[in-house]
Amino acid sequence: MLSVDLHTHSIASGHGSTDRITDMTDEALRRGLALFGISEHGPGTPGGASCSYFLGLKLLPRRKGSLIIRYGAEANIMDIDGKLDLPDHILKELDYVIAGIHPRALKHLDREQSLRVYIGAMKNPFVTFIAHPDDSRYEVDYNAFVSACLKYRCVPELNEISVSPASYRKDSRKNVRNLLKACMLYNCPVLISSDSHGRKGIGEATHAEELIKDLSFPEELIFNSIIRDRIS
Ligand SMILES: [Zn+2]
Ligand SMILES: [Zn+2]
Question: Separation of 163 CA from ligand 1 center, angstroms?
Fold first, then answer.
């Protein structure tokens, strides 16, 4: 169980759940998380949240009992240059931004194209994390990818859904192993996320944590632990 989970979605993402933010923060508190983040899909995802929705997040509570709550976005990367589906004036109001490639916007990319797309997104100063860089439809050279993450101060994600048996991404488990090996080689931290749609999977990362253990991935490179130590 994660104590810090920053990649989750409520009903506002338009698919996968009817749970509201309140339902989710109640559940995160009940499960004993220290820090919980909601990161809705942006308008590039059908049914995703609008710009005005994201602007309203600053009115919401940032604490519930012992739980710290933060509000971000999972922005969709829309083109070969890494353009996002939310403008900078919205992104800068958020606590953090996760950028990810999704099949509706970009179908298949070769190694060179994927790296170009990721670097384009990383160059956006508001992007903090790169979502699920583990899908062979967007294959990437992990040494080059991780080097770029360090250069542009972005943290790649280890996504629980990607490495679970129900994963719909291609070759994710194999790709995640290569990602983690490159992170160890270059000393690059990784964010572990549930990517829970609704409250049912909040903080859950059983398969991700198994891989971490299996590879003896060092605790000091787990971004969740770095943040938890800073807030405790
Ligand atoms: Zn995603
Ligand atoms: Zn997501």
Answer: 13
